[in-house]
Amino acid sequence: MKNSRLDRLRRIRVSLPGRTEEKPAAARTEALDFKSAEDMPYAVRLAASWAWRFLIIVAALGVLVWALSKVSLLVIPVLVAALLSGLLSPVVNALNRKLAVPRGLAVGITLIGFLVLVIAGLSLAGQRLSAGFTALWSQALFGIQQVQDWLFNGPLKLTNDDLQGVLDDALVQLRGNATSILSEAISWTSFIGQFLTGTLLALFVLIFLLLDGRKIGLFLVNLLPRRARPAMDGALTRGWASLVSYVRVQMLVAFIDAIGIGLGAFFLGVPLAMPLGVLVFLGSFIPVVGALITGALAVLLALVANGWVNALIMLAVVLIVQQAESNILQPLIMGKAVSLHPLAVVLAVAGGTMLAGIPGALFAVPMLAVLNSVAKYLSGRAWETDEFVLQHYGIQTSPPGTTTGPPQPSPATPSDPEPHTSPENRQPEKTADED
């Protein structure tokens, strides 16, 4: 028995684990050296990356808005001149190219015609306004008499002593606020002076934008590095085209609003129908809000002059015109011209109003349209296939599938022309058409 057990034990092979070499302490420490950023979840790291970039963008925009608010007397006239230049530049180009009128003379003819048209329209509207207010004054006096009869003979049963007490309280309040009233009057005087100065400055800037708009654009582009010039020149050209389209479409929309509300007021017998149409036309340049405010003014005039039934009909006319603008004109015309959603337009107007008041509401949508066009152009690398850029810069695009950076301009660039180049590769200051 013992021998058989010993034989079985000898047949069992016991294999002990081999001795493993221990790694040095430095190697173990290096293997366990985790980076602190990798310890955080991916969602937290992504949110932090977006957060600090977003904060930098907001801070930069805040500094830009603050700096522009300090020089608003310069910024607002320049923006007004840019809008008017987008409206009048097609007329100048038509006179210069199609009728062979010298560009300086074409600018003068266009500006004089525009000023004559504006002054004639305002003077005619002013005459109708003064005549209408003369007729309204008698109606206003009659309305005041009715209010007095209601106060004395109505449910309130007021007496002369009560009215005298109200007048005395009003005089006391007026005397107590004399300083604030005087400061408001001085501020209005300063505002009128700033308005006249801004008007002259806007006219001066408009002349040079119509005369040398392309040269001014090239001057700004040539301040950039050479590799960035083709892309930025194409982007600015696309943004300017978007601004021109916006001004044309907004002019058409404002004209349709003015015709609709003005004709409605005329047929309903509302006084000041023509001046009201002019106000609607001017107010419609502030999208959504302007036409709404001027339409409310039309309803108020109808209520004062013709009663509440006429005012309700005028309200219906205003709502129909507004719905036609919002559901037909804005999506079909404005949407195709500047590629902006109506919600973006409303938010831009609201944000511009909160930041800069009426000027912010006026310039928010065109600035958003320009920024939208520039951003789409740059993000889509559209300068690689843009005929304008290819013609003026001779871009040599990279082969498909390569990522070697932005395309390189040819040696004949606007800032480094060669004396013996072919006509198509000359500097754009010589060959580029004036916009």
Assess the beta-strand content as a share of residues.
under 5%
| Cα distance spanning the termini | 116 Å
Using only C-alpha atoms, the radius of gyration works out to 36 Å
- Helix count equals 15
Give start-end ranges of low-pLDDT stretches.
396-435
Give your account of this protein's structure.
Belongs to the autoinducer-2 exporter (AI-2E) (TC 2.A.86) family. There is one protein chain. About 75% of the residues lie in helices and about 0% in strands. The chain is an all-alpha fold and about 425 residues long. It is extended, with a radius of gyration of 36 Å.
In short:
The protein has 435 residues and is an all-alpha fold. Helices cover 77% and strands 0% of the residues.
Structural descriptors:
435 residues, mainly alpha
Question: How does the SSE layout of this entry go?
Answer:
Blueprint: H1 2-11, H2 25-31, H3 36-39, H4 42-70, H5 72-98, H6 103-153, H7 160-176, H8 178-221, H9 229-267, H10 273-283, H11 289-306, H12 308-338, H13 342-379, H14 387-393, H15 428-431
Helix pairs in contact: 5-6, 5-8, 5-9, 9-10, 9-11, 9-12, 9-13, 10-11, 11-12, 12-13
